[in-house]
Specification:
InterPro entries: SCO2524-like (IPR049777). Helix content is about 55%, strand content about 5%. By secondary structure, the chain is mainly alpha-helical.
């Protein structure tokens, strides 16, 4: 694989050190300024890599490697690096806590923009609107931060420093609880008649040849029966759920809106009631659904469970989020793979129920389908269909192909797909409608290709996906900033597409997503590659022959010979035992060991023939 995670991650750390400056005068902002999301993304660039590559961890100063110290030299010595990171986490948690209420803030800040044809700026009230992206990013950040400070605390002896660590962990726990409550209150259910504009758009998406029909509505409802039943367990929007279950003419969508939905039920814990009013429409957005699904998954990871990162209140919230997460994945994977022939997700671009179309939406749907297929143990033939979609999207997005003059596909990279956040205009008088820019097509494609490659069993399909990942990484590698303090960070799309405007400064939004791709690549490298069937067959036949020849030598009494002969046969026995262990997962390595054994056994046979003259 072209991408080498360890070397690239250390390179990113060096670049962050250059851009952010010394540990005593740390600069947070990027091209979008400061907000609760971009600052969290910067911290994730520092905290996520050691969770994927323990060899570059820095929470144990005595074990910190020299190249890690060099990469984070602006933070100080091996002893000072974790101290500085703890303080940065504390600064972030303090800066995004409301001083009056004491509650964490999850505002979108500079990530919220007006429509391309609207020259107005978001109002001050709109800048403070809380968004799902901040909730989900905070879940990932706080779980990583809690794991980090707990590991580091064991290395600290000074009481004052241990007290600081305890304060940071308590603040991180508080933010995690608030983020989980925000995600729970942002889950959206939209119910509509099958013959409405939304219903007809959904029918045309899943069956473009026939479009709307009462028979198709009935089939869709039947395929989504378990999802509809699960919605009742959520305990909210019961009137809508009851109507949906009783009226056979209704269809629906579920997932995450852009923020807390209007009339969302309060979430109560032992210490706090999360009841801040929401403005978001009760309708799912593909982007925010994918972001929420990815963030919530961290709550159920093996590391989170084993380290006991969630307290009792958070575990209660996690149970509801787990149900929402499961329902959203099942809904979108069912819609995207509906029918017996061509799947809707294969018919690009994906069309939403508000009749918007984009290849970016297709890639978002692929993200949800991939997880659902793997979770239910789908065969490689189904995963191969997703691989073909990823390859097509790489071509359509001009990642593997040269763009045409004035190519509209370049808008996917800059300025990106603009998505209206309906309800944001209700934030105050004269408030414009706000939107969100979707622009990380390359990183999303790379991460999905790497994740899918780790999950397939067919070695040919895996090789195809790794080639696609190499091409996507080559594309992203070219998009690094090449001069100035931000050299080595992302994202400068004009390096690949000269007709696009140059930005000149880094984006933590893009850089963090590249770092996450590196973590996915590390997971792939650590995993066992699927054994090729032909290679496994060859290795098995070689093992049979080698064991037969070895047994013949034992039968001849070679094991009773001199010390050199006994040592040789002992080594061959060890080699055969190891080859037998490796055969199921690494047939190539097993074959190499077996060939070495056969070579040594043939030397014994040749020496014997020379002595006897045969």
């Amino acid at each position: 694989m072209r991408l080498q995670p360890r070397q690239e991650l250390l390179s990113v750390w060096k670049a962050i050190s250059r851009w952010c400056g010394s540990g005593q005068s740390f600069s947070w902002g990027d091209r979008a300024g400061r907000n609760s999301i971009s600052d969290a993304e910067l911290l994730l660039c520092l905290l996520l890599p050691p969770t994927k590559l323990p060899d570059i961890r820095y929470d144990r100063p005595d074990e910190t490697k020299p190249d890690v110290c060099a990469a984070l030299a602006s933070f100080g010595s091996a002893v000072e690096i974790p101290q500085r990171v703890v303080r940065l986490i504390g600064e972030y948690l303090h800066d995004y806590t409301d001083p009056e209420t004491g509650l964490p803030e999850f505002s979108g800040g500079g990530y919220l923009t007006t429509a391309p044809d609207d020259d107005r700026e978001p109002t001050a009230e709109q800048r403070t609107l809380e968004v799902v992206d901040s909730y989900a990013t905070s879940v990932v950040l706080t779980t990583a931060a809690i794991a980090f400070v707990r590991g580091y605390r064991r290395q600290v002896q000074r009481p004052s420093h241990r007290e600081e660590i305890d304060r940071v962990e308590a603040a991180a726990q508080k933010r995690l609880t608030a983020a989980m409550a925000g995600l729970q209150r942002s889950f959206a259910l939209s119910v509509f008649p099958g013959d409405s504009r939304e219903g007809r758009a959904l029918c045309e998406t899943v069956n473009p040849e026939e479009g709307y029909s009462a028979e198709l509505v009935a089939r869709l409802r039947d395929s989504l029966g378990d999802v509809m039943a699960g919605l009742r367990e959520l305990g909210s929007s019961m009137d809508e759920v009851d109507a949906l279950l009783e009226n056979r003419d209704l269809l629906f969508e579920c997932g995450w809106s852009w923020g807390i939905v209007r009339d969302a039920e309060p979430v109560k814990t032992a210490t706090t009631v999360y009841a801040q009013p929401g403005l978001a429409e009760s309708a799912p957005y593909l982007y925010f659904t994918v972001v929420a699904v990815d963030g919530i998954r961290d709550l159920f990871s093996r590391e989170t469970r084993l380290k006991g990162l969630l307290d009792e209140e958070q575990q209660s919230l996690a149970r509801t989020l787990n149900l929402q997460w499961d329902l959203a994945q099942r809904y979108w994977s069912t819609i995207a793979t509906f029918g017996e022939d061509r799947w809707p997700v294969e018919d690009m671009p994906w069309r939403t129920t508000d009749e918007e179309e984009s290849d970016y939406y297709s890639l978002l749907v692929v993200s949800l389908v991939r997880r659902a297929l793997v979770d239910r143990g789908a065969p490689d033939s189904d995963l191969a269909r997703i691989a073909r979609v990823l390859e097509d999207l790489a071509d359509r997005g001009r990642i593997r192909r040269r763009p045409l003059a004035g190519d509209p596909a370049l808008k996917l990279h800059h300025p990106g797909t603009w998505v209206a956040l309906n309800g944001s205009e209700l934030a105050g008088p004269d408030a414009p409608l706000l939107g969100w820019r979707l622009g990380e097509l390359g990183t999303l494609l790379l991460s999905r290709a790497l994740a899918l490659a780790a999950q397939v069993n067919d070695h040919r399909l895996r090789a195809r996906l790794l080639r696609l990942a190499d091409e996507a990484w080559r594309h992203l590698e070219q998009r690094r900033l090449r001069d100035g303090r931000g050299t080595g960070l992302w994202d400068e799309a004009a390096n690949v597409y000269p007709t696009l405007p140059r930005r000149g400064s880094p984006s933590w939004y893009h850089t963090t997503r590249v770092v996450q791709c590196m973590g996915t690549a590390a997971d792939l490298i650590r995993g066992e590659p699927p054994p090729g069937m032909m290679l496994s067959d060859v290795a098995s036949e070689l093992l049979v022959e080698a064991e037969d020849v070895f047994d013949e030598e034992q039968l001849r009494g070679s094991g009773e010979g001199g010390p050199a002969l006994r040592d040789s046969l002992s080594r061959q026995a060890i080699g055969l035992r190891r080859a037998r262990r490796l055969l199921p997962t690494r047939p190539g390595t097993a074959a190499s060991l077996i060939l070495d054994v056969l070579r040594e056994l043939d030397k014994l046979a040749a020496a014997r023939e020379s002595e006897t003259g045969d």
